């Protein structure tokens, strides 16, 4: 069990955009975030999700898309493992941002 915990901490420490966290913070994050779930395809998060949650892509590749003026879904960015950036606050004109799994993904929430 201890080896599994150490592997999970190493996995989180390897994520570039949270590598600056202290060992204590990484351990606390691991306890909270690794209650994740796998997704092979589909929506991981959209602009309807609670802004109080932070999502961490633990493995896999995802993409963030939005709707353009014609209503077509357009790629904004491809996301590698790490924190999934938050979406801008709602405005009168909705762009329907969402993060979608491209490959099999493991996602944790804090």
Can you put this structure into words, describing what you see?
About 20% of the residues lie in helices and about 35% in strands. The protein has helices spanning about 1-15, 25-35, and strands at about 35-40, 40-45, 55-60, 60-65, 75-80, 80-85, 100, 105-110. The strands form two sheets. It has a four-stranded antiparallel sheet with strand order 1-8-3-6, with no helix packed on it. Strands 2-7-4-5 form a four-stranded antiparallel sheet, with no helix packed on it. The chain is elongated, with a radius of gyration of 15 Å. The model has no long low-confidence stretch (mean pLDDT about 75).
Describe how the helices and strands are arranged.
Layout: H1 2-13, H2 23-33, E1 37-39, E2 42-46, E3 55-59, E4 62-67, E5 73-79, E6 82-83, E7 98-101, E8 105-109
Antiparallel strand pairs: 1-8, 2-7, 3-6, 3-8, 4-5, 4-7
Average pLDDT score:
76
The main β sheet shows up as: 4 strands, antiparallel
- The gross shape turns out to be elongated
Number of β-strand runs:
8
Fraction of residues in H or I helices: 10-25%
Gyration radius from CA atoms, angstroms: 15 Å
Number of helices: 2
How far is it from the N-terminal to the C-terminal residue, by CA?
A: 22 Å
Content of β-strand: 25-35%
Low-confidence segments, given as residue ranges, are: none
**Strand order in the largest sheet:** 1-8-3-6
The string of secondary-structure elements, in order, is HHEEEEEEEE
Query: Strand pairing plus helix content: what structural class?
Result: alpha+beta
């Amino acid at each position: 069990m201890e080896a599994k915990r150490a592997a999970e901490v190493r996995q989180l420490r390897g994520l570039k955009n949270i590598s600056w966290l202290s060992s204590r913070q990484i351990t606390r994050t691991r306890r909270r975030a690794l209650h994740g779930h796998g997704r092979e395809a589909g929506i991981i998060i959209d602009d309807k999700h609670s802004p109080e949650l932070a999502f961490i892509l633990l493995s896999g590749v995802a993409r963030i898309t939005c709707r353009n003026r014609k209503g077509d879904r357009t790629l904004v960015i491809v996301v590698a493992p790490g924190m999934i950036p938050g979406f801008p606050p709602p405005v009168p004109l909705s762009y329907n941002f969402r993060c979608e799994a491209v490959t099999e993904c493991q996602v944790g929430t804090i």
